[in-house]
Amino acid sequence: MKIKVGVIFGGESVEHEVSIISAMQAMNKMDQEKYEIVPIYITKDREWYTGDMLKDIEVYQDLNLIKSYGKNVVLYYKNGSYVLQSKGFLKRVVKEIDIAFPIVHGTNVEDGVLQGYLQTIGIPFVGPNVYGAVAGQDKAIMKDILSGADVPMTKYVWFYDIDYKQDSDEVVKKVSKLKYPVIVKPATTGSSVGISVCENEEELREGIDEAIQYDSKIVVEEVVQNLKEVNIAVMGNYEHQKVSEIEEVLSANKFLTYTDKYIGDGKGKLKGGKVKTAQSKGMASTNRKLPADLPDKMRKEIEEIAMRAFKTLGAAGNSRIDFLIDEKTNKVYLNEINSIPGSLAFYLWDAKDINFTQVLDDMINIGIKDYKKRISKTHSFDTNILQGFAARGGVKGMKGAKGKLR
Question: How far is the C-alpha of 301 from the C-alpha of 77, rounded, in Å?
Fold first, then answer.
């Protein structure tokens, strides 16, 4: 019997279209002899749809087609199964799934929000749990945690948008402890959305104004000079980790932009916050040198730091970890972790003769193992402390407390 895998993608995120590309790539490479693939698309207004038509990327050029022909559903636990049930007056079970596979990017989906829902209803799922997802998505939290673990990173500061709105001069003064140029990032977005490199205070203020359009928390960090940017993927959980090949990413810009990652040759167009890129191959189309040209000592250093960071942050599944190298000093800095990376970083494993189908299979197996570990732990007690509560004067006591609270 095939395992029913619910591939969840889309969502209310600026990386909505990127998620669609990644999910299409994955669904096309899953072993259909082992898995029954159930696409689950979350629209930008947070409605869930399913249907075989959602496996075709051409459908997403006209979202009205999805609403007309797809099944609008909710996912929940019913009679011992995890079901997609239709909404509306005549509710019926459309599909059952055995495990959820979120292939999502960005705020409201990759950041622990979706994982929290899946964990609440109890379904097995692929990738990090709530804590790992939060730590992986929020760059401020990630940097604070990794700093405590002595992971090498560039100097940084972070602040809330309200801090800047109330006293921008004080925030600029805080940032002045860093050396220009600096890079300004929204803390919880990905795909290089809302990022600016700033050479002076005027550009810094412009960069912050851009970043706060996307997030309430802003990170500013020093730019690495003489930069070489390399990425590596880590597969596993807190118990076991293995690493992929290392790539050097190539860009004509000061950092790898959204266009570099997802539009590339210009066939796609970014307009009004929307990307139309049916031809795009996602992160797989980025210019790169694979494997990266690195001395053995530095390669081992990057592998060790990557696995340590992966474990420290509680990541699971398949993450891509990005590094910055100062080629003059040969210093290595961890930039960030992508807990559900674009294209699932399959090309990094392919370079080690582990094909995309095997990567997906490994991720699903890790998700199943993590689920078994999770349910083996004690999360509640059979005893009910409310039994006899009223007889012991508990209700009377609560009435008194209620009156005082008013």
Answer: 45
Report the DSSP pairing between strands 331-338 and 317-326: antiparallel
Is the domain spanning 136-141+144-150+225-250+287-375 CATH 3.30.470.20? The answer is yes
Cα separation, 110 vs 193, in Å, equals 15
Burial class (CB in 10 A: 0-12, 13-18, 19+), 134: buried
> Are the C-beta atoms of residues 206 and 182 closer than 8 Å to each other?
no
112-163 residue pLDDT tens: 999 999 999 999 999 999 999 999 999 999 999 999 999 999 999 999 999 9
Side chain identity, residue 162: I
CATH number of 3-125: 3.40.50.20
- Specify the pTM: 0.87
- The C-alpha torsion from 164 through 255 and 349 to 10, rounded to 10°, is 50
Q: What is the C-alpha separation between 207 and 164, in angstroms, rounded? A: 12
Structure tokens at 27: 């669904």
221 within 8 A of 154, measured Cβ to Cβ? yes
